[in-house]
Amino acid sequence: MIRHLTFGLRFLSCLALVFFFGSNWAGGGQPENLPQKYLVQLPFQPPPQPDYPPGEKATPAPEILNAQEQERLDSLLPLLEGKQELWAIAEFVHFGKHSVPHLVKALKMPGPRIRFNAVETLSIIKDPSAAPALVEVAMETNEESKIRSHALRVATRLDPNQVIPAIEAMAKDPNSTIRNTAVFEARNVHRKEILPIIIRAIPDPEQYVGITARNSFWLLTRFSGSIHDWEISTPENRKEWAKEWWDWLEENKERFESEPSPTTPPRANLEVS
């Protein structure tokens, strides 16, 4: 009995809803019965801005370091590894170019973490005088590959004219990761001497190294060669294809002979494209 009563109430409720909404739908077809609607822009008052006190300026680094400050920077070198390494990096960055000789010492300290952080700190300081020491690290065959690769990247950005010997040596390294880093960073060296080094890397035993070399050559010269299937290529294929790049370089060598090759590389980039 209760079940039948409940069902009846539900049925009546459904009929009422259908009648209510049905009447609204029917009236909806008569737009003249609907009220007019207007879009109104309400006034808006922006919230008050917080009143922060003026920040304190950092103490500038001294122009010349005294003996006590020199000793302090040397004492910070072991802290490049450990829980305070970020603080130590910030201290070296604060002293700027004065920190470079001390960080160069860290490049030969035991502990790969110290050496890697020293390279990273030099990249933040951005002093070109650190480039020769970084090139030396990049060419050190007994160094870890990640430190060598990072040293070459930083040296290339500090002074690309000084990394050509490192790129040439690293492009022949037994480690394929080192070879790939060398030909990748070659695209940032706008010097004619870098082009033969890149072409010699196209027939590399590792396919991805050859493709990286091809891309670096294109970025420097906008020459891409004929269409080849590089994804399934063999070293023999790439050695044969590399002849196109040698022929192109021979035909266009006059473009790169307008500027003599200096014994001391200039700081300015020499565009080859």
List keywords for this structure.
mainly alpha, 2 domains, 12 helices, 54% helix
Which helices and strands appear, and what pairs or packs with what?
Elements: H1 2-28, H2 67-76, H3 85-95, H4 100-106, H5 112-125, H6 131-138, H7 145-158, H8 164-170, H9 176-185, H10 194-201, H11 207-221, H12 235-251
Helix pairs in contact: 3-5, 4-5, 5-7, 6-7, 7-9, 8-9, 9-11, 10-11, 10-12
Q: Would you kindly provide a written description of the structure presented here, covering whatever features stand out?
A:
With 273 residues, this protein is an all-alpha fold. The chain has two domains: 65-158; 160-273, no CATH class. Helices cover 54% and strands 0% of the residues. Helix 7 runs parallel beside helix 9, helix 9 runs parallel beside helix 11 and helix 10 packs antiparallel against helix 11. It is extended. The N and C termini lie far apart (94 Å).
SSE string, helix = H, strand = E? Answer: HHHHHHHHHHHH
Radius of gyration from the CA trace? Answer: 34 Å
Q: Main sheet?
A: none
Helix count equals 12
Distance between the termini: 94 Å
**What share of residues is helical?**
40-55%
What is the averaged pLDDT score?
A: 84
Instruction: Give me the secondary-structure category.
Output: mainly alpha
Q: Are there runs of 5+ residues with pLDDT below 50, and where? A: 258-273
Q: State the shape.
A: extended
Query: How many domains would you count in the coordinates?
Result: 2
How much strand content do the residues show? under 5%
Report the strand count: 0
Q: What's the gist of this structure?
A:
By secondary structure, the chain is mostly helical.
